[in-house]
Amino acid sequence: MSAIIRRYSTVVTKADLWADFSKRSASLGLKDAQLKEALLKGVAATDGPVSITDKAAKMRYASTPGMQPLFETAHTYLQQRAQRTYAAIERIERQISETTDAQVKANLLAQKNKMAVSAEQHNPEVKYTAEYLPENLDMSQAAFRHYAEQKWNNYGKMLLMERLETMSVIPDTMPTLNPEVDVTMEFPCSGASAVVPGAFLHSSTTMKPPTFTIQEFKETDNQLYTILIVNPDTPNVETNGFNTTLHWGLTNVLVSNTDIKVDFSKMCDAFGNNKHEICPYLPPVPEKNLPYQRFAVWVFRQEAAVAVKSARLNNPDFDIREFAQTHGLTAVGAHMWRSKWDRSVSAVREFYNLPKGRIFHPHRL
Amino acid sequence: MSLFAKVSSARVAMRSALLSTTLISTLRAALPATVIPVRTATKKAAGSRTSMRDSAGRRLGVKKQDGTLVKIGDIIVRQRGTRFFPGENCKIGRDHTIYAVEPGYVRIYLDPFHPKRRLIGVALEEHLLLPTPHFAPRVRRFGYAPIERAVDAQAEEARMLKQEALQLPEQLAAEAAKRAQDAARQSVLALQIVAFVELPAEEQTLAGARLLAIENQLRNGRAIADAQSITSFDYHFDIRHEARRAGIAPEETERLSQQYQEMASKVDAAVSFHSLTFDLIPHMSATDMEAAKAQLVEQLRACVKTKKALSKDIDAAVVFSAEERALLKRDYLSEGIAGSVKVFNKDTRKVEVIDAAKLGFVPTL
């Protein structure tokens, strides 16, 4: 090991790019000075690492002998590499400002994003923040977005796709989905916490509209979204089949990397009037003895601001595919929940002045 | 050569030519002339191990041809092993029998996702072909019928599973208790708010309800601004639907909404909640809050400083012996430890768990 250190010590000269926040965002560094020192300067034998909370385990901890000089060498080497990457980013930025072709510009932006990740992703402070302090990540930084996306890819995205496919939301609503944004949903009026995709929700929980968060992982600014909630399991007794009902529609919702909330303070004015609604919220009101109904939340990226023709929405069989196509919408995220008849459905119907629900024979014919 | 000899030699030649063509004849020719086959008297006493074991035919085969109309449960194929696999709207039995689970028209088809399988499915409509295109919505039959007689429907609606019936009283009691608790808390808040802000008597109950809702949101871990916005939205949403039910004019609803919003902004500007005890506290602006925080931290720092200085004074004082110094530090400057500690009691000869705060010093174990 000491041979490696000696070899690199001669090659690598001191660089402190990652300690310089004049051009870089302050969020890329650790705020806690004690934590920062422990991370970069090694751990004093008596104090132990900050990441270990158990006192006994902290006392027991011993760093590998010779680790600190090796760490410092690697740290310097990585910083020099990052410095070269930052120089390349500057070149790309100049090219972006010179070009007028939209396609070329988009490609350059993607390239720049990739390089911004590689310049910071091995920074120990960034890595530590992404790993141990994931609540307050600054999503305007490409490196943090990269780590957040990795985490989402490994769990949230897979879970969502599993639920959408096993419960046939795909292809019963939209043909398929390549998820690009992390969508979360909650029903704050009922005091419920974030919903796991596919969960069964009580009708009293879903009585009032939900709120969402839409997390983009690519660099976005002023991106507009459309959110539709559809139920492909509305019974149609006449045709002995099912209709798709539009339960809620929001258009032109503005979301950026840092402002991800789609909550009431964003959607509504001071008197609770929702300015993004294309149809008022219709809560799930399943009828007794029928199988569960699926409620699919689809999040679309808009190309531009959308004006919706309301005639389409009154159709008893709402065609979400046609809607997406005519308004130039690209599905980038989804969520779902399930509802079944319960004893609160009648109260929900009463609240919304809906007709009394039918009662079905318990056995399928 | 005589004629007989000629004929016999020709016959011999012909025979030998004939015999040479078959294996048996060659073997026979190879036999010595002295071996004479003898038939001994034999009688097979029992049948062979494999004879008499052929069962009657199992009547296997395709029972409903492609395009045949079938009912639910109709057997389409009887087979050994899976010559055919169950496709859409079909299932496979224990003996690989394929039967219909939906009424419709039999289709024998191939699926590009399973190129080596022949599938049997049931199309719900005569004009439909299988497999259904991969990205197209599934064609589903509803199959339930509503109960027409009002009396029967009412009875069916009231019907409960045993588990639900058993849980109901407990659930109702819990709900009633929560309502009572909320009502009590609301009246307390309505009384307390008067101390912070001047409100007309009719607005006090409304303010109490708002504060209760905010408190519940805060207890769910929400930020104060979010809690306030959700509570406002909830009220406006409720009142709009209430007006729709009761047929109240929209102007009246608007007036009520406005009135509520005025009250809300007054209350929000006057009070906030203690983050630990959830008691009402006077509202503080963010800058005031930061200033107060900084002041308190400064006080704590000064406190620790004086303690350190005193410790130095005791050390420096010439009047104390070493023992007295230790006692003084133990009694007045000990840091103490939180929680419970184990102490060996010499009298009872047992280890006792004692509250560290009561002890006042760190015991040596």
TrEMBL record, chain A:
Any one Gene Ontology BP term: mitochondrial respiratory chain complex IV assembly
Keywords assigned: Mitochondrion
Principal place of residence: mitochondrion
InterPro entries: PEBP, PEBP-like_sf, PEBP_euk
Gene Ontology MF: a single term: structural constituent of ribosome
Origin superkingdom: Eukaryota
Any one of the GO CC terms: mitochondrial large ribosomal subunit
Subcellular location: Mitochondrion
SUPFAM superfamilies found in the cross-reference section: PEBP-like
Function of the protein: Component of the mitochondrial ribosome (mitoribosome), a dedicated translation machinery responsible for the synthesis of mitochondrial genome-encoded proteins, including at least some of the essential transmembrane subunits of the mitochondrial respiratory chain. The mitoribosomes are attached to the mitochondrial inner membrane and translation products are cotranslationally integrated into the membrane.
Family: Belongs to the phosphatidylethanolamine-binding protein family. Mitochondrion-specific ribosomal protein mL38 subfamily.
Protein name (Swiss-Prot/TrEMBL): Large ribosomal subunit protein mL38
Protein source organism: Babjeviella inositovora NRRL Y-12698
TrEMBL record, chain B:
NCBIfam families: L27
Domain Large ribosomal subunit protein bL27m C-terminal positions: 152-334
Keywords: Mitochondrion, Ribonucleoprotein, Ribosomal protein, Transit peptide
MF (Gene Ontology): structural constituent of ribosome
GO biological process: translation
Name of the protein in question: Large ribosomal subunit protein bL27m
Location within or outside the cell: Mitochondrion
Record-linked InterPro entries: Ribosomal_bL27, Ribosomal_bL27_CS, Ribosomal_bL27m_C
Record has Ribonucleoprotein as a keyword: yes
SUPFAM superfamilies per UniProt: Ribosomal L27 protein-like
Similarity comment: Belongs to the bacterial ribosomal protein bL27 family.
Cellular-component GO terms for this entry: mitochondrial large ribosomal subunit
Residue stretches in coiled coil: none
Domain of life (superkingdom): Eukaryota
PROSITE patterns attached to this UniProt entry: RIBOSOMAL_L27 (PS00831)
Signal sequence extent: none
PANTHER family attached to this UniProt entry: LARGE RIBOSOMAL SUBUNIT PROTEIN BL27M, RIBOSOMAL PROTEIN L27
